[in-house]
Every structure is written in structure tokens, then in C-alpha cells.
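Q: I'm writing up a methods section and want to include an example of the input and output format. Could you take the sequence below and give the corresponding predicted C-alpha cells, formatted cleanly so I can copy it straight into the document?
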Amino acid sequence: MIQRVQSVWLFLASLTLFLLLILPVVTTATSTGEVWLQVGGIYEKVNNVTQKTVSYSALFGGTILAGIVSLAAIFLFNNRALQKRIILLTIFLIVILIAALINYALNIPGGIVGATFNVGAYLPVLSVIFCALAFRGIRKDEQLIRSADRLR
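A: Here is the clean output for your methods example:
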């Protein structure tokens, strides 16, 4: 209803999830070249030729789904209870995404030992924080409306 800052938080959450689609999560060096994990799969660079060796379609689709759900929650400002539930669903999807990323990162060729964690490794956690801040903003709006109703 009032929707001040929570729309910004939800937009930032969806933006970080969409950025996760293009940024690498983990990079490691192998004897033949460099291998990195992105949400779309595992990429390998050998002799300045980059190719996708493994594809993670479910992880890619789950990331897009979480980003779209987070973006769609912005437009549910008329129904704050539903908006809060959608934000909790988004947080749940992001936690599943984090678990899948950890699982795939542990199985990256070349091993996780000595690997470099890139910006993409921190984006899901940042997105959860943005969703939590949006949830808090909606709750504060509800409290403000209740207090205004008491004054009438």
C-alpha cells in the first residue's frame, strides 16, 4: 500500500539474481587451463578457446524463476500478506539455489582446494539479505497502517 523502500529491495534482489546468470561463481586452474562454474554450467578455457563442458539447465532455470518471482513481488503491493508469502518463497528458492551451487562447486574439475570464489558466489546471499529487508519494510508498513487505524 505505502510501498516505499521494499520495492527497491525487491528490485535489487532480482537484479542480483539476474547478475548471477552471467557472473562466474568459482574459478580454478587445472593442468590444461582454467575452469569456472557459472549458473549455466561449467566452462573451460584451453588455449584461449572457451567452451561449455557441462550444462546445468535446472540451476539456470531456477535462478531465472527466483529472479522473476522476486520481481513479480513488487507488483503485489495491494496485498501485503501475499507479498510477504511470495518473498518467503523467494528466500526458499534462493536457499535451494545456494545449496545446489555449493554441491556443483564441490564437484568442479580441478577441485575446490585452491579455487577462487568470484563475485557470483556472494550474490545469492546478498539477494537473501535484500529479500529480508523488503520483508521487514512490508512489516513496518503494516504496523504503520495499524497505528493509523487506531488513531481514527
